[in-house]
Design brief:
Elements: E1 6-10, H1 14-26, E2 30-34, H2 37-47, E3 51-55, H3 63-73, E4 78-84, H4 88-96, E5 101-105, H5 110-134, H6 151-164, E6 170-173, H7 180-189, E7 198-202, H8 208-216, E8 217-218, E9 230-231, H9 233-236, E10 241-245, H10 252-264, E11 266-267, E12 276-277, E13 281-286, H11 290-295, H12 301-307, E14 310-313, H13 323-336, E15 345-346, H14 348-356, H15 362-376, E16 381-382, H16 408-430, H17 435-442, H18 446-455
Helix pairs in contact: 2-3, 6-7, 13-15, 17-18
Length: 460
């Protein structure tokens, strides 16, 4: 950014625009002007000003619309709202929506305007300086708990950094155990809301009857046992990030209510009559094909487009070349540090077993396997015999490799289908058909395990 930022001045009184432009020009600000909101929107696109000075009340396109579009184009833009004494409440609402400051017309002196723009310029300078200081830390800043150096994960990191700068809603797609919540936290940590709260809600973990209260809250006496008023997680996440894990499990009735909350930025607690204004950034995650759910009528298409402005697809561990060894050593350091003597590492045969396994439970399954090995080994190194039988390929006959004569993509799919059937059958057999224990071992939730069993024609 230059020493003096570019300023866009918007007011439907031409004399006001001319006077302010002349005044700020004397202080070496580069000014562009508009006398209506429509022209202002066009200048936002073409000129990309760092500071916007806009009247609130204008015909056709008002200052709130200018503010909204300015922040969409540049989340770091500094907007000063100008309003009359009778519209102070609207100006305060504009600040809640992202405006930096507001001034009341008529201005008591030119000095008031000059000082306001100087504060805005200093704000913009600090934003730019902070960004420059952060750039040498890229690409790892914000990914403290996300381990990976594969090309597939580097592409994810790059997309996360770009998406975090905006306020757009994000949908993270990936199989169970791929680390969707960690990516959601990384988005929050790199966003403008990083200093505010991150609120996770698992839509698959709660019964439908409790999920509405968990999300929207309830008033005292709303139902049996509601002995006090309780704010919902959407309300708790005000000014921060709300993370809805497994949003594909959201019941139809709540889908409609969530859509309205996102559109209106207001919620009403269960049993309540008043609306509560909320300011949230929504990040969702699912291990299901949400587009397919929309086609089947199980997920509202209007909600799908609302939550899926930006999609981040997390690759499964089997497609992350080189990351298995990296993750294994990461978990070894975590779970082996409390041992006496300290674990020195993984034997070559152990690493070969880990890298030759398909990891249907992804990173979570690998984490469980390493934690188990650290607890059971009696030597200074993790040996292959410290791994579960199914990971080192023992305790079952090796499956015939299907699809040898098929094209690569089809052969791979056929192999994965065969592997999944054998893995699930062995998993259930080892746990006597106990779904909860089997899901825990695989590093997935019960609903996901039930879906996989149904998909492959298996029964508990």
């Amino acid at each position: 950014m230059s020493a003096k930022p570019r300023v866009l001045i918007v007011d439907d009184e031409p004399d006001v625009v001319a006077n302010w432009s002349r005044l700020l020009g004397r202080d070496d600000y580069a000014c562009v002007t508009a006398t209506d909101g429509e022209r202002a929107l066009a200048l936002l696109e073409s000129e990309r000003p760092e500071i916007v000075l806009t009247d609130l009340k204008m015909p056709r396109v008002d200052g709130m619309q200018v503010l909204t579009r300015a922040l969409e184009l540049d989340p770091d833009v500094v907007v000063i709202m100008i309003t009359g004494h009778g519209s102070v409440e609207s100006a305060v609402e504009a600040m809640r929506a992202g405006a930096f400051d507001y001034l009341l017309k008529p201005l008591p002196s030119n000095e008031v305007l000059r000082l306001a723009v100087e504060r805005a310029a200093e704000r913009r300078r600090l934003i730019e300086e902070n960004r420059r200081l952060r750039e040498p830390l890229a690409p790892r800043e914000g990914f403290d708990h996300v381990v990976g150096k594969s090309a597939a994960m580097e592409a994810v990191f790059d997309l996360v950094r770009k998406a975090a700068r905006s306020e757009a809603n994000i949908l993270i797609q990936g199989e169970s155990g791929t680390g969707k919540e960690l990516i959601a936290k990384a988005i929050h940590a790199q966003s403008a809301r990083a200093a505010e709260v991150f609120v996770p809600v698992d839509c698959a973990a709660l019964p439908d009857a409790l999920l509405e209260s968990e999300l929207f809250g309830h008033e005292r006496g709303a139902f049996t046992g509601a002995d006090r008023t309780k704010p919902g997680m959407i309300e708790v996440a005000d000014r921060g990030t709300l993370f809805l894990d497994e949003i594909g499990e959201l019941p139809q009735a709540l889908q409609s209510k969530l859509l309205r909350a996102l559109q209106e930025r207001q919620i009403r607690r269960v049993g309540g009559t008043k609306f509560v204004t909320v300011d949230i950034r929504l990040v969702s995650a699912t291990n299901r094909d949400t587009a397919e759910l929309v086609r089947k009528g199980e997920f509202r298409d209007d909600l799908f487009y609302r939550v899926n402005v930006i999609t981040i697809a997390l690759p499964p561990l089997r497609e992350r070349a080189g990351d298995v060894a990296l993750l294994a050593h990461h978990f070894l350091r975590r779970y082996g540090r409390n041992r006496e003597p300290l674990l020195a590492g993984l034997e070559p045969d152990t690493l070969a077993c880990l890298e030759g396994y398909a990891w249907p439970g992804n990173v979570r399954e690998l984490q469980n396997v390493i934690e188990r090995a650290c607890a059971l080994t009696d030597g200074p190194m993790i040996r292959a015999r410290d791994l579960p039988d199914h990971v080192r390929g023992r305790g079952r006959p090796a499956p015939a490799l299907p699809g040898k004569d098929l094209p690569l993509a089809e052969a791979r799919e056929a192999w994965l289908q065969a592997f999944a059937q054998e893995y699930l059958t062995d998993l259930l057999r080892r746990h006597g058909g106990n779904i909860s224990q089997a899901a825990k071992t695989a590093g997935i939730d019960r609903k996901t395990l039930h879906r996989l069993l149904a998909k492959h024609g298996l029964k508990a």
